[in-house]
Amino acid sequence: MENFIELLKEQYNTYPDMPFFDMVKFIYQNEFGCGHFISQEALSLRRITEELKRLSSRSSSKSKLEYIGNNFYRLHLYPAAVNGPLLPQTINNIFIQSSLKAKPGNAENFSKKLNIFLECCKENIFPYCPSDVEKYISDYKKEGFPPVSHSDSFKKLYDPAYRVISGAFARYMDIFEAIDYALKNKSRTVVAIEGKCASGKTTLASYIEDVYGEKCSVIHTDHFFLPPKLRTPERLLEIGGNIHYERFYQEVVKNITRGESFSYGEFDCSKMCIRQAVSIKNTPVTVIEGAYCLHPEFGDYSDINVFLDIDPREQKERILKRNGPQMLKRFEQEWIPMENLYFSHTGAAEKCQFKFNVSAWPKVYQ
Question: Which of 286, 298, 290 lies closest to 218, judged by CA?
Answer without folding.
Answer: 286
